[in-house]
Amino acid sequence: MYNNPRHQEAPYYEVWDIWLNDLIINALNYNCRPQGVITINTSQTERKKVKLMKRTPDFIIYHTWDRVFDSGSSKQSLQHNRRVAFIAEVKAWEPIMGESVDGESILDEFNRYDFLEQVRDHAKIIMTEDNRNSVWLVQCIGVFWRVGKLRREGVSPVSESKVRRKGKNKAPREYTTDIAWRPIRKIGQLASDVEQLVFWNLMSGDLRELQR
Q: Which CATH number fits the domain that encloses residue 198?
């Protein structure tokens, strides 16, 4: 929480740390990294200096696995691999939002232009650096959450510009991204537990396909 200068999301970090660790508790080849850094080399030519662009999602869930290689002799080598399974981005509970929240209000918060562009940038970095065709994302606002999947097809290159801050460069209300979002759920409800299981099966299934 101390890496966040304004600490706005701090009250919710513990909630999502517990939730994410509960999600992966029975999967020994997954681990959770709070405030992990994802990077990409944005150099376009060999003459250009190497320039790393960094982004810091609130949480990164990694998938680790071992791969055995035949070295051409009687010995085999073991390589340890780590891949980003998905990232989770947490936002504070807005002052205008009370305990009883209507569907349209919470959807507006999830569809904020700056929020969508932020997680989309994270996904594009992961796809480019890890040569992936798709990336899973988790948006968290207060105790509400939803998961989405961004596919590589038709996605613009990674932008070197800073993430837009709320209230600046607002897009029209009908603005959407090409992320396929699943329903919004609230922690503690049965529908949330069901959605959590669905997400796990979809996400882990995608990673199994990558290892083949």
A: 3.90.1570
Is residue 190, in this structure, part of any structural domain at all?
Answer: yes
Q: What is the largest CA-CA distance in the chain?
A: 67
In degrees, rounded to 5, the angle at the alpha carbon of residue 56 between the alpha carbons of residues 195 and 66 is 70
* pLDDT tens-digit profile, the chain (212 residues): 455 555 667 778 889 999 999 999 888 889 999 998 898 876 655 555 556 778 899 999 999 876 665 655 556 555 668 889 999 999 987 654 555 556 677 888 899 888 998 999 999 999 888 888 899 999 999 889 999 999 988 777 666 555 444 444 454 444 456 899 999 999 989 999 999 999 999 999 998 888 77
Range of the domain at 178: 10-66+76-210
Report the number of distinct structural domains present in the chain.
Answer: 1
